[in-house]
Amino acid sequence: MILSIPIVKLYACSTAPRVSASHSSSRISYFVKSLGCGEPRRPTRSSCLLFCAPNPRETAEMLYERNSSSNVAAVASSPAVDHHHVSPPPRSFLDARSEQDLLMMIQKEAEAGRLPINIAQGMTELYHNYRDAVSRSGHPKADEIVMSNMAIVLDRVFSDVQDPFQFSPYHTAIREPFDYYTLGQKYIRPLVDFRNSFLGNSSIFYEIEKKLEQGENIILMSNHQTEADPAVIALLLESTSSFIAENLIYVAGDRVITDPLSKPFSMGRNLLCVYSKKHMNDDPKLIDMKRRANTKSLKEMALLLRTGAKIIWIAPSGGRDRPDPVTKEWHPAPFDSSSVDNMRRLVEHAGVPGHIYPLAIMCHEIMPPPLEVEKEIGERREISFHGVGVSVGPASDYHKIYSALDDPDEAKSMYSELLYSSICQQYDVLKSAIYGKQGLKASSSSVSLTQPWL
Q1: Is 163 known to be catalytic?
Q2: Of the N and C termini of the chain, which has fewer Cβ atoms inside 10 Å?
Q3: Structure pTM?
Q4: What is the pLDDT of residues 143-163, one digit of tens each?
Q5: How far is residue 219's CA from residue 75's CA, in Å, rounded to a whole number?
Q6: β-pairing verdict for 198-200 and 449-450
């Protein structure tokens, strides 16, 4: 879902946003208990493993009426967002009662000219791939899950085609009147084999939450594997670190905010929107516009960091990991040291204490990217049911490295390599646990694996 880029050249994603935003300087409390609402709700084991309603319309109405304030406290300095343009969902897809109904509705809308042919084909392919993946999970209600989830997703895709949503440089997750965040979680949940999934160093995630509570900033330097990364991170953290799960801000590439099949899921995340460096030259006529526009995203990031208590995810590699063309093995893509250093300097110049942590993600099986970077929007989406993993390492201190080397260029390179090496080490532990079938025994002296959802 998220395609993050080196921050050395940030290019904005929207020149005519339909969402207005303004920053508030006031600080508010970050946890539900501090609002007098008791402890944050912890999902039950069954809700962690699966979320399913009897029919698509009932589920859609629940998502549409859901009030996010009952689930998570507001983020400090969140912009005021006008969601009047999010129209109630059309009835047709939600009233489908069978696979044949859904597929016929896609065909009907395409024939009527309300759905472009390429989008209709993508919707049909997505349905089949999702159905097959959920069916392989072996869940006894797989058919119901597929119908419930896909009817709502297709409904939201169609609704956006009719009235396209425009993302601002800084987009806050839309939780009402329709809860797009929960939609994303509900859609990805059945694809995750939780019994073969692992969370690394939950104690460090707890440490991060405490620093956020104290008003400090957190940056997660991470590898990036699939469009589903945000949902995977949130699903594995929802039972222990729900505040991080729901308030994480992702540096996101333009493709996930323009592809009709990605947009509904992106609408449910907090995003700093950028044009990917890898796609900057796709159309030479747009290069200057992208550069000027994305300067706005850089300014938005600086403003967010100055308010404090922000947690931002970025992939300094500039895109998703891809398998080695010879060995077919997956491994975190190398970091761009300039991107790491620019992010570090932004954090240090914010005037608020900040910390940088290395985060490793392993989830490429459930939604692998194309083998090569594609220029055209509308990539083919393969989907599978599989175990996933997320792990975080200790924060890294650049100034300790700099004081030892006293050479800015060398220190910058070594700092980036230190973060990348930590991610690779964590990734190898997750790989042993999931693919090596070692499970929790794969834990090492630096990575403690747990399964808090079981």
Answers
A1: yes
A2: C
A3: 0.81
A4: 999 999 999 999 999 999 999
A5: 16
A6: antiparallel
